[in-house]
Amino acid sequence: MRRRALLGLAAAVPLAGCETYRSNDTVPPVASHPPATGSASSAKAVVTEGGGAVPFQRGKVMLGAYVDLQGLGAGAGIALRRRQLGRPERIVHRYLSWTDPLPVSVAYVPSKSTLMLSWRGPAYSEVLGGGADKLIAKAARRMAQRKRPTLIRWAWDMNRDFYKWGGPANNRDTAGYVKAYRRIHGIFRDEGADNVSWVWSPNWNSRPGESWNAYTNYYPGDEYVDWAGVSGFAQTQSPGEMFDEFYATYATRKPIMISEVSAVDRGGSTKPDWITSFRDWMKAHPAVGAAVWFDTDTHPSSRENWRIDSTAATLAAYKAMSNDPVFTG
Question: Whole-prediction pTM value?
Answer without folding.
Answer: 0.88
